[in-house]
User: What shape does this take?
Amino acid sequence: MLTNAVKPSVSEDSTLTTQRLVVAISGASGVIYGVRTLERLRELGIETHLVMTRAAKITLSHETDLKVADVEALASVVHPADDVGASISSGSFRTLGMIVAPCSIRSLSEIASGVTSGLLARAADVVLKERRRLVLLVREAPLHGGHLKTMLAATEMGAIIVPPVPAFYFRPKSLAEVIDQTVGRSLDLFGLEVQGVRRWEGAR
Assistant: This one.
């Protein structure tokens, strides 16, 4: 068992000899959240299973100077987005859960409706049915009623909606600090302690 990561709170997965997390990157703006998540998990020694949609690869080229190969190199295992027979498509493949960073409205809608047209939605569906933790960094604004109802539906199914809203109490000096804080707080939800997360300690 790794010494630099807290055991998951879900009893079923507390005996995992290898801690692994599914990381999905959809085509929403904010692909850097997924990239940074992979980097932080690598620092923790967590085995990562990456799924990048076709739209995510397009967004990557618009928002960063990274190549798809650069992102895939950060993951322990890479699964093609259309491989619905991948290991992470089965509940018998045990994980700590899954994070979708960023999560597009399309991906959110597929997850909430149970329509698993690709591996991202299928893997998320597996996480929900196995009562594992599913964290969705939904990236959209403004939101209409349909978006809000879909987020409610996903929440009622067990997902946790974490819009990447920046925190300002720690007075970030760069965009990188804002991104790291969001990623760190998101990984908190899996019981994983990331170095550098600024925590509120009360008003002084």
Q: What stands out?
A: Confidence is low (pLDDT under 50) at residues 1-13.
